[in-house]
Amino acid sequence: MKLGWANRVTIVRMALIVPFVYCLAIAGGGGNTKMRHIATAIFLLMCISDMVDGHLARLHDDITKLGEFLDPLADKLLMLFACILLAMPSTAVAGFRLPPIVAMVIIGKDVAILWNVVRCYRSLKIVHVDTIMLGKIAAVFQLAMIGFILIGPEVSRSLNWWEDFVRVLYWVVSVLAVTAAYVNIHRGTLYARARLRERQEAAISES
Q: Which of 80, 83, 141, 158 has the largest count of CB atoms under 10 Å?
C-alpha cells in the first residue's frame, strides 16, 4: 500500500515520541535544562505536524482508514508518555509536577474511549470511532497544558502568576476529559443500540 504524505507525516510524528520521551526522562526533574528544551522543541514539532497531516489529508483528498487509525494513536501515545513522565517525581518539571490524579484522569479518558470502541466491535463486529468536538477541544487543552508545563520554569520568572495559571489548567483539563469520555461512551451506547435494533428489524422482516 502506497503511503500518502499525510500518513508519512503521522508516522514521523509517532517516531518523534521516542526522542521526546528520552529527552524528557534525561532532563530528570529540572536537572538538565538543555534536554528539557530539546524535549519542548520536539513537542512543538509534533504539535505542528499534527496540524500539517490533517491539512495534507484534506488538501489531497487523502483521508484513509490507516490515517484515521494512526493519527489519534499518535496523539494518545504522546499524551500517555508525557503524562506519566510529567507526573513522576524523578522526571517532572521542577515546580510544575503534573498531579498524578490529573494524569490518571487523562489516561483514563483514553482507556474509556478505547473500551467503548472494543465494546462496539464485540457487539456489532464493526469498528466505530465517534469523533466529537468536545473530544477535540479536550485534546487541544491537554496539549496546551503539556506545553505550558514544559516552558513553566522560564515563563514563571517573568510572569509570577504562571504557576497558578497552570494549576487551574490542570483541573480544567480534568473536567473536559471526564466530560468528553462520558459523552463519547453515551453516544457510542446509543449508536450500538440503534444498529442492533436495525439488525433485529431486518432479521424479522426477512423471516
A: 83
Per-residue pLDDT of the chain (207 residues; tens, 9 = 90+): 566 777 788 888 899 999 999 999 998 766 789 999 999 999 999 988 878 877 676 766 766 666 667 778 888 899 999 999 999 999 999 889 999 999 999 999 989 888 877 877 777 777 666 778 888 899 999 999 999 999 999 999 999 999 999 999 999 999 999 999 999 888 888 887 888 788 777 777 776
Global pTM reads: 0.85
Domain CATH code at residue 179: 1.20.120.1760
Domain that holds residue 187: 5-206
**C-alpha closest to that of 20 among 47, 52, 1, 54:** 47
